[in-house]
Amino acid sequence: MDPLSAILRFHSWCRGRGKAWSLSGQDGSPAIPAARCAACYGDGQNLVTEDVTVVEGDVATISCRVKNSDDSVIQLLNPNRQTIYFRDFRPLKDSRFQLVNFSNSELRVSLTNVSISDEGRYFCQLYTDPPQEIYTTITVLVPPRNLVIDIEKETAVEGEEIELNCTAMASRPATTIRWFKGNKELTGKSEVERWSDMYTVTSQLLLKVGREDDGVPVICLVDHPAVKDLQTQRYLEVMYKPQVRVSQNYPLQGLTREGEPLELTCTAFGKPQPTDMRWLRVDDEMPQHVVVSGSNLLISNLNKTDNGTYRCEASNAVGKSHADYMLFVYDPPTTIPPPTTTTTTTTTIPTTITDTTATTEPAVHGFTQLPNSAEELDYGDLSDSRAGEEGAIRSVDHAVVGGVVAVVVFAMLCLLIILGRYFARHKGTYFTHEAKGADDAADADTAIINAEGGQNNSEEKKEYFI
What is the 3-state secondary structure (H, E, C) of the chain? Predict the structure, then answer.
């Protein structure tokens, strides 16, 4: 082994232990007699430096510092061991290296516009007896030069699965790609290709789209030490068939009753916007008196033949949808005559009876249309309506029963009054026809003999009430 190689190996061994090195030679020549080598020592001056990581194109600063300086000379060498600075003098003809600070204890140099070719080890040397040397490593980071999202289809249809690819080109080290749809993170599949000292990463995302994804951004985000918040995005464009809804304009609330009007409105939204909208009656023909005007349906005079399911259909380039409205026509509300007051006065017992009945109209409720299915009728509203009608009917029944009872009581009182008057008029004595014909007799004996009520006619004797 040649003497210089031995010195360098010994130097490296000493540096690994954080110590300087010394050698003993008779004339200071680079010879290391094995018996007279001095081991690494910890006393004296020490060199200190740090590794540097810099983004391509930025400025790297290299610092060589001395502890316990004794005014020894400091110099800086490049990876090719060419002297960059010797004290404050720059032998190397590269103007990108500039002196930042020079003193007995520090040599600080900046390197502007750093490139990949500048990466490597830079050496700090201190001319002492023995000389000291330490190195620092410059690492150059290269951010992705281009970040692009490619989408399989510019416009997708609801329910389709589309493919998106995000590519980060020429980075160092290889980048990590993350996907987001809105605020939700998704998982993609990445592939890495190496070109010389650079890396190109491509991530693939498979996404099944729905109508809720229309206008939502898909974001490709890069994680790389050389760059922060590097991202690109594409907005999804999703076509979907119409969404249809039927609303009841009149009556606003309440039951649909016979003789009253009904007005329905159909609204539809889709992408593209629906251009064809029509009304039809499910399982039957549309009544002739029904008026359809665009999205509106009007029945001016409901009757029970109008009962059924009415459907609004809308279509666009993607497909067709519908919403149903189930119509049930109820009887018109019933009305009871207003209450009356009857007063009866007699000479014996004055009596006044008042009969008042109230008319209660059932609560009014309406139907709610249900989209796409006749079975989805809102039976809660219908139950409330029927409950209201049943309560009204019970109230009317109670009023009628009360009126009948009042009339019966009144009739009984009148009968008692008439009977009382009759018996009052027929109290006292009464007369018979026994002496009839005796008024013309000459004496009492002849009167008795001629009387119609005499003994001869006793079997025919009758009594009469006057």
Answer: CCHHHHHHHHHHHHHCCCCECCCCCCCCCCCCCHHHCCCCECCCCEEECCCEEEECCCCEEEEEEEECCCCCEEEEECCCCCEEEECCECCCCCCCEEEEEECCCEEEEEECCCCHHHCEEEEEEEECCCCEEEEEEEEEEECCCEEEEEECCCCEECCCEEEEEEEEEEEECCCEEEEEECCEEECCEEEEEEECCEEEEEEEEEEECCHHHCCCEEEEEEEECCEEEEEEEEECCEEEEEEEEEEEEECCCCCCECCCCEEEEEEEEEECCCCEEEEEECCCCCCCCCEEECCEEEECCCCHHHCEEEEEEEECCCCEEEEEEEECCECCCCCCCCCEEEEECCCCCCEEEEECCCCCCCCCCCCCCECCCHHHCCHHHHHHHHHHHHHHHHHHHHHHHHHHHHHHHHHHHHHHHHHHHHHHHCCCCCCCCCCCCCCCCCCHHHHHHHCCCCCCCHHHCCCCCC
